[in-house]
Amino acid sequence: MLKVTPTDVLSKHSISKNDTSTPASLKQKPSIPIVLTIAGSDSGGGAGIQADIKAISATGSYACSVITAITAQNTLGVSAIFPIPLEHVEKQLDAVFSDLNIVAVKVGMLADCDIIKVVAAKIKQYKPAFLVVDPVMVATSGDLLLKESAISTLKSELLPLADLITPNLPEGAALIGSDVPTNEDAMGDMICELRQLNVNAVLLKGGHLEQDENSNDLLIFQDHFQQLTAKRIHTHNTHGTGCTLSSAIASYLAQGHDLLQAVKLGKQYISNAIAHADELDIGSGHGPVNHFFAGHADV
To answer: Pyridoxamine kinase/Phosphomethylpyrimidine kinase domain: from which residue to which, for each copy (predicted)?
Structure first.
């Protein structure tokens, strides 16, 4: 997939430098990069499309969306999943790509093989500059969100197109067919097999190692990896953390940051959102993170 920076991607509405009839004030008007999220809807508002739009907006980009499934969901769990008909998923994709200057795409919940294939085909057709895939398989509550039969399709059709995939430990284990690691040594043992997924980079998230003092992630490239460390924050309100992080990374990529810096900024953002999560009182189960912490707190 062709990779270009946001400054290389010109909107069809961009003003020519030679157009002297355009007022200077319009020529100098800054543009906000557009980020598309392709994911499922969370009726509880803490994860999925709703979390993605909040994170993209809070980190300074413009969010648009394509909904792949409707979940009946709250902080206690997922009670039903209704996949959007394929024709309508395709029409949503064509609608936003044909009109909006989308710089980065974040992909989340896709539910089944057919939707994965449609999304992959449209990514190949429209060639956005950046693609971040959060291989959503299991909700924070433990509910299965991706059919097991669809994992191979995800690996063959979509992951090779991505600049970055962001699995947590259970998702990473499912992608390579291993046991879920229970310590950092076992987490490190996953590196070689994750490199065989034919992806540009993998952010393996260590948040499930709850016994550790820090929350350590591994940013894995083909020839090296880097450990990213943050202080572990103890809270029951962690619903939507993966959606939020991957969306923030896509937002920062769209703004022109390189991959390493976008990941670091995304990790900083989600750490703050988790740190302020207990300021919210949402539901009786795993509450959401606080996406807009900066708007009403000293950070």
So the answer is: 42-290
- The pLDDT of residue 211 is 63
The pLDDT score that the predictor gives to residue 138 is: 65
DSSP for residue 20: T
Q: DSSP secondary-structure letter at 214?
A: E
8 Å CB contact between 190 and 172:
yes
What are residue 100's phi and psi, to 5 degrees?
-100, 145
Residues identified as active-site: 205, 238, 240-243
Backbone angles phi, psi at 296, to 5 degrees: -145, 30
pLDDT by 10-residue block (mean), the chain, 299 residues? 42 41 54 96 95 98 97 91 94 98 96 93 98 82 67 93 95 90 90 94 84 82 92 86 96 98 96 91 90 69
Helices (H), ranges, the chain: 24-27, 48-58, 86-99, 113-126, 151-153, 169-176, 184-188, 191-195, 241-254, 259-275
**pTM for this predicted structure:** 0.86
Q: Which CATH number fits domain 31-292: 3.30.1050.10, 3.40.1190.20, 3.40.50.2000, 3.40.50.300?
A: 3.40.1190.20
Domain ranges across the chain: 31-292
